[in-house]
Every structure is written in C-alpha cells, then in structure tokens.
Amino acid sequence: MRQLPADRVGNSKIRIRLNARPPGSREAHGAERSRARALFDCAPWIMLSALLALSGCMGPPLALSPDTLPDAVVGQSYSTDLSAIGVAGGSSPAFRVAGGDFPAGLALAAGSGEISGTPTRSGSFAFRVTAQTPGLTQQTGSIDLLLDVFDALTLNTSPAVARVDEPYTFNPQIAGGLPPYTVAVVGLPAGLTFAADTGVISGTPRLPASGIALDMTISDSASPAQSKSQRLSLTVKPRAVAITTESLPAATVNTAFSTTLIAIDGRTPYRWSVIAGVLPAGLRLDRNTGVISGTPTAVGSATVTIRVEDADSPQSTAEREFTVTVVGS
Fold this sequence. Notes:
329 residues, four-stranded mixed β-sheet, single chain, disordered N terminus
C-alpha cells in the first residue's frame, strides 16, 4: 500500500465534488450557491416532514361521544348526534360506519355525525363508528355502539262483558316495546281493580252499568320509554238469571196439576226447557211461562233438570234439578 509522505499525514483533506465542472469555474460556484440556498429555504419543511414521518402523520386521538344511544322504534323517525372531542385547529372530522350491523333505515351523516332515519327492523344492532380529521396531522377516533330497535308498542283489546256479583278477569293484549310494562287504568267501577305490571282487570263488580269509559295507559321499559293510551268501554250486566223455586209440589194421578217455576234477574222474557230427564206422563213444561201443567196418568216420580235462559246478550242461564212425584188418589 502506498504511504503518504510523513509531512502530509496529519494535514490530509478529503474533498467531495458536487458536480463534474472544474472546481474553479464560475458556473460551478453559481450552481453550488443555488443548491445551498434551496436547501436552506426548504430546511423547515424537511424537518417537519421527518417529524411527521416519525409520528405516523397522526395528531392526538379523538374521543367520540356519547357511548350510549337512545332506543329506536320500528317505523318511527329517529335522530341522535355523535360528536368528536379533542379536535385540534378547528377542523371538522368525517364520520363513517367502520363495521358491524348498522340498523336498516338509518344513515350516518359524514359531516355532522348525526344518525337519523326510520328503522325498518327490530333488534339489537352492534356497530363501530370512526371519525377522522383532514390535513397532515390527522386525528382519528372510534367507538363501539349498540342501538336497540323495538317494535311499536300496541294495545289491541276490548274488555269482555262483566256481570254483577260474578268474578271477572280481563287480560289486555299488549305487544311490542320492551317489557316489563307499567299500566294505569282510570274509571273502573266499584269492585274492580287492575294490576300495574300486566294491566289485568279483576274483581267482582257490584252495580250494573253500560259503556263505562276506561282510560288505559301503558309504558314500556325502553329509553326513552314508549307510551300508548287507549279508551276502552266496559259493560257490567245485571245479575244473571236465577231460578228461585226450590221444589215442586206433588201431583195426584188423574187429577189436573199446575205449578209455576219462578226466576229473577237477568233480562226478560225467559225461555224454559227440560235439559235432562223426562216429566211424568201427562205433564208438560210451557217454554214461555215456566208453568208445569197437565193430568198425570201414573203413580211414580221423575227427576228432571230444568234450564231457564234470559233475553240478554250475552245470554245468562240457570239450571236446577227437580223431582216430580205423582201420588195415588
């Protein structure tokens, strides 16, 4: 290997040529000055670019709010707003659904973060929303959300007819929304009450009445809660028809006989009939009057069940068993 002279070992210099022009030329010096000036002017941007590259071109993260959405109802207009917290420099982030099951019928506004529309299907929908600001120092954030969409609360019911002094139970047909429900009923007649959790009306009414107005209001457990009100009409019929005759007198063979069955309450006119057994030969029951009459032809006894029906709607009935005895003369 070639050795440098001893007098130049400590003073050696290394030069790097930036161009192919002779180093002493006027053109070479001008080009070097232009490159140096350009490098000086661009230095801040070069440093900024290096820093952004090192940081991934990302600013501070965004926090999205709220993390709990109000419930929605199928077929009803829905609107709620998402917001980004921690946005720097006054820029506006762009929102988008980044995955999951977004409810049909709703849309997310990219510029405002509003979720709006009319949902078309019930269910629990889990999805992710992200927000990102524009520019070199982008800020991003994401949030996982759950939106419950319920069917509309419905009350399809018409109270059955009640009757004085008879136990009564009516169960309203409630559907949709989120159980459990809260029920209130105003206008019940004396003797009837309602269950606040089911709306069941029960008891024993004391007085007859026609077309009693009941105001029933139902609320579910959704947030916000759905509410449904309906005016119902309740009719309390008079006491059902009843047979007050307890027994029949004895008849005498070959002798004319007549006795009248007595009924009360219900609505007249009554209709009478023998529904089990047979009256002694020679006797018959008048369907319109309840009179048993005729001339029995043989000694003996017969057990029959007699029914009375009233003219109300719905109809009330009563039955009683009697023994008819025919004795000798």
